């Protein structure tokens, strides 16, 4: 289990401060959420943790080790995996292949091994295929194993993204709006799945989500951003009743305010 800490984390785009000096500790083995109105800086925050953006200021630490500014591949190999707001699967590859891609960084065989296939490499590939199959089973995706990823129903594609992220064996899993576009039944299934996964795999899970029912039902600890600044942190009950959070949502749109009330 791992703890992820950010200190004074900051990102600017020209004159705009998208994330402004945010301090937060994502506790080990807990589901946390990052919420806030549209444009609050949530995705930019994730992008800095996962190496897509270098922070302009501040520190990102995984178990006390500074990882800020490292490249995405390095961050993945250190144990942080993520999914994206918009599904980013390899659509023309099979469902199993998508998960195997997630494992690739962990496999020992390099290009030489893949071409010449000594017995050790063949053994590793068989093990990886079995592990991929087990992951698909866990996510209820095994029936589509040999189908193209883009032929799956929407909810199944979202689950496949999480399965692929898990194939890297992360200590910390970041989910960017995992329930976006899902119907209430799919959202309820996903909620149960994330809960089960976090409990059984003992991971630190961090989610960005607009669906407040999902956030309040899943997370123990919540960070609230508004205009890039941390305006609150606490338990779901503390956040629900926090005057600055209510104000931030009320100040935006009636639709967004309703969901947190
Ligand atoms: N690459 C970029 N270049 C310039 N501005 C950006 C860039 N990425 C994000 N921004 C701006 O930074 C601010 C924060 O955006 P971000 O996408 O992080 O917010 P968010 O909270 O994830 O929003 P949403 O809930 O709508 O996804 C916004 O004003 C956005 O327009």
From TrEMBL:
The record places domain ABC transporter at 4-252
Q: Which Gene3D superfamilies match?
A: P-loop containing nucleotide triphosphate hydrolases
The record lists the lineage as:
Bacteria, Bacillati, Bacillota, Bacilli, Bacillales
What Gene Ontology molecular function terms does this protein carry?
Answer: ATP binding
Which species is this UniProt entry from?
Paenibacillus thailandensis
- Pfam families linked to this entry: ABC_tran, BCA_ABC_TP_C
Give the protein's recorded name. Answer: ABC transporter ATP-binding protein
Q: Which superkingdom heads the taxonomic lineage of this protein's source?
A: Bacteria
What keywords are assigned to this protein?
A: ATP-binding, Nucleotide-binding, Transport
